[in-house]
What does this fold into?
Amino acid sequence: MNFKTLILATATSLLLAGTAMAQTSVKIGVLNDRSGVYADLSGEGSVIAARMAVEDFDAAGKGITVEIISADHQNKPDVASTIARTWYDQDGVDLIVDVPTSSAAFAVNEVTREKNKIFMNSGAGSADLTGAQCSPNTVHWTYDTWALAHGTGSAMVAEGNTKWFFITADYAFGQALEKDTTAVVEAAGGEVLGAVRHPFPGTDFSSYLLQAQASGAQVIGLANAGGDTVNTIKQAAEFGITQAGQALAGLLIFITDINALGLETAQGLVLTESFYWDLNDETRAWSERFAAQHGGAKPTMVHAGVYASVLHYLKAVESTGGKETEALMAAMKATPTSDPLFGEGTIREDGRKIHDMYLFQVKSPAESTGPWDYYNLLATIPAAEAFRPLADGGCAFVSN
Amino acid sequence: MFELLGIPPQALFGQLLLGLINGSFYALLSLGLAVIFGLLNIINFSHGAQYMMGAFVAWMLLTYGGINYWWALLIVPLVVGASGVVIERLMISRLYHLDHLYGLLLTFGLALIIQGLFRNQYGVSGLPYSIPTELAGGTNLGFMFLPNYRGWVIVASVVVCFATWFAIEKTRLGAYLRAATENPTLVGAFGINVPRMITLTYGFGVALAALAGVLAAPIYSVNPNMGADLIIVVFAVVVIGGMGSILGAILTGFGLGIVEGLTRVIYPEGSSVVIFVIMAIVLLVKPAGLFGRTQ
It folds into this structure.
């Protein structure tokens, strides 16, 4: 921030300080995919989650007026940055949440830094958001490619599955996931026999699956997401890949994907998530309330992240008594996070939210007792090990 | 062991077969498009949405009515085809005296509406639809494991394509149809109800799309976007084959499926564009398409 803006911001906040004590009004923009491939895992559910956070915090009772607006970024970075700019400049938005699709998230990351507002990401995967492209205005909440690669990758290698083959979506996210997982596999003494990069999005994956089968790998790593992953898994079952002894590792799978696959096809998959509705009494209670407002569908980890991040933001607004960006970011990083969905956690200097991650295995149809009862917990990855160490991220403003 | 294009023969045969399976879908869908264009002169852009409806209606029959795949193969084309008849009567029939472009815009708009409705109701993640138990499992062909269901798709597609070609090119009904498109007034003078024949033809083209949708449901997830992803490729197939040519649609459908399958092994990144590259070349060399007649 340059000197002039600093003066201006300070003057404005001083002017507003008197009224802010009594009544603060904040505007939150939920920016995500409302109609495309990620609409089910983020979309309207994220708006519901944000609204629930405002209610649970009892913002009105604490003298904070909160308005929530939402928009569709169509998974396009140019659309995302235009909306973010309009929101900040004309609509008085203070905080943008969610923003799935890494390329769109990078665009919002930049606009937010430029406008000196706050961006709390829940939907995007790239670990670069708190690494090479880190910003003092951004918090990355739910998961990232490093955590996914280490969660699923390490677990599979530890079980003796050392030979890998990747089926990778040919764009930034897929390549990053393949790269991160390759590093994990090789560090653990494993070997990557090959990879095939398919156009995004794809429909027919049988050619790639046959190549993976012919490679003789023990594990086929799926470095893609959403509908691509769903179709790859479905077709792998059709071609008898898993029955023939090869394991599938879904590197990014959401519970909505499992719902789309059906347990018959998805059973046995190992995956990493930061949240599951059936973890404990608190997550179950919250998820039931969520499902009641969302046509019966249980929340994804992205929805949970939106809820928790909005809650933490509102706590910071309450404690600082205003909405000055530096003060809020400092307060959010200084105060431990606590919410019913992720439990206790922290936000690191680089903006990375730190919490436990979980390794799940998808249940068989016989084990499942009803709709959305999909996962068995294999292991809890403690917060300290779940995310990339601060020093390895290469974030420019991190002091060390 | 000899190698062709750097691929071991086993893998090559496998990929050829996979290409043939995808080609089955291209052939069925482009056949429906070619029938509608050839006989009605309407560029049916809602074909992809009607294919998607086919998959969804199959899913609905199973989920809400417990009606299995085999019945769906019969019922779905009838139901979706009937919706096509309604659309033709209410909307498309008013456009025959106008430019092609109006039909294209109308059907494109319809496609967007249909997709939007399904997306709002069922979300975008897709819905599961299992392979019928009779066709579960697969056969080891030596060079690859062929899922029985995919084998069935090839057979079903070849039979339907041949039957349609035969009906239009070799039967009396087909002759009436072709005559009606050339000179509706004259054919009408022979006491044949030309508007009804045209309506049923559109319904039949839509039913073909719906049938492809039922065949696709167990392989790809039942998803509101499934038609939108495919329709552009299918249009390219029709253009390469020659707009309106029934035989052209069938042969290029299968052929391009195979070409695309081979590209997946040789250069996977190029597999999504190879059909369009071929389309560009064909349009340069033979603008009416491989099997099209120059007017």
About this structure: Chain A touches chain B through 41 residues (CB under 8 Å). The mean pLDDT of chain A is 91. DSSP finds 14 helices and 15 strands in chain A.
